[in-house]
Amino acid sequence: MEYEVVIGLEVHTELSTKTKIYCGCTTEFGGQPNTHVCPVCLGLPGSLPHLNKKVVEYGIKAGLALNCSITKYGRMDRKNYFYPDCPKNYQITQDELPLCRDGHIDIELEDGTIKKVGIERIHIEEDAAKLLHTPAGTLVDFNRSGVPLAEIVSRPDMRSPKEAVKYLEMLKSILSSTGVSDCKMEEGSLRCDANISVMEKGSDKFGVRTEIKNMNSFKALEKALNYEIDRQITALEAGEKLTQDTRRWDDTKGETAVMRSKEFANDYRYFPEGDLVTLNIDDEWIEQIRKTIPELPHEKEARFVKEFEIPRYDASVLTLTMSMADFFEKTANLSGDSKAASNWLMGDISKIMKENATWVEDLKFTPEQLSELIKLINSGTISNAIGKKVIVTMFNTGKSPKTIVEEQGLIQNSDEGAILEVVNKILDDNPKSIEDFKNGKNRVLGFIVGLIMKETRGKANPQIVNKLVNEEIKKR
């Protein structure tokens, strides 16, 4: 029997406010455990919440960027449950009247077609505390308790793990570009729950769904969904009955594991939050917020392709975050070489940032300095190979490339006479290589050029080296 996969995502993103949703405590990441707290976010008796207006603003901004309609009259609700990370025994969230409804995201599939993935709702709520499981027992850090979240619930429109990853990537880039969230998945700013089921191909009746909780990387999402698809199909083929449950992804074992049976809405006994007033959002405020939405990633991507004449793939990578897009655009304009700017940012610079777990906004060098490096290479002052060494020093020190080149004596040698002496020395020392080349082994040229570059410590102009090597070999 053939099966069809049905996937919907519930994405929790921390909003980039300076203070928590119902109190004045800082939302800053990190800090000593239980230091970013007060009676309100600790849920102490007698403490009263006060809704942070900026949270509502950011929620509306996210909704507008995701093509949602805004609920003009709404409220906050209590979601009742008992768990160590929820000190009040309820979470203040939204139930029947979410802030935003009926939006969508367009994603590009592998065959180039555009698919619309519906967004059912966006609601704002408070985050829970963080549980730390140790050999001595489970500890609770309440620093995260009360940090504002927007929960973005998609419709079950995705039909493969790759579509789900595409959707999450696009969602992340939109939220990041609008400034409503930093979306740092490794810090928990963006977390994803996935609902997945399989059904007989061609059927209009969904299968029994499983929820996979708290995945914080694109790789984890794809792996967990692929595993769950195999698990569910294997069970169905064996005649087993699937149950609706909540599972967690174990990245070490590469499998999902049952956490608990799936709860339903009535298990939470939702009711209106009596300590907070209703939300009354007028058209004027909505339009004010709409005007603050910047150029969105898909719009910027199309402009980069047209304006800078770079491949669409390059543009799609460069626009994943606003900081990367801004850095590229400034560098491209200053250097006059958009392809070189793209190559450096997508290649060596991204590699260095990944190795050092850092971000574009944390770079010690500026677009002006990167454009200076590109100009030094294009003018022949230094080689591309030397440039790769310079960029590492720029990353570590923030010094300008011109200063680094002067301090380390890295200026490229374009003196043909001096280079010719080295070429002849290497050829004299490697007669077998000359013979091999004349016998049709063209790869020998790369070997000889490599020896020359090593002898000159990478300073010889590669174009001149290649020209002289070809000329001298033919004479022998």
TrEMBL record:
Keywords: ATP-binding, Ligase, Nucleotide-binding, Protein biosynthesis, Transferase. Its EC number is 6.3.5.-. SUPFAM superfamilies: GatB/YqeY motif, Glutamine synthetase/guanido kinase. One of its GO terms (molecular function) is ATP binding. Pfam families: GatB_N, GatB_Yqey. PANTHER family: GLUTAMYL-TRNA GLN AMIDOTRANSFERASE SUBUNIT B MITOCHONDRIAL AND PROKARYOTIC PET112-RELATED, GLUTAMYL-TRNA(GLN) AMIDOTRANSFERASE SUBUNIT B, MITOCHONDRIAL. Heterotrimer of A, B and C subunits. Belongs to the GatB/GatE family. GatB subfamily. This is Aspartyl/glutamyl-tRNA(Asn/Gln) amidotransferase subunit B.
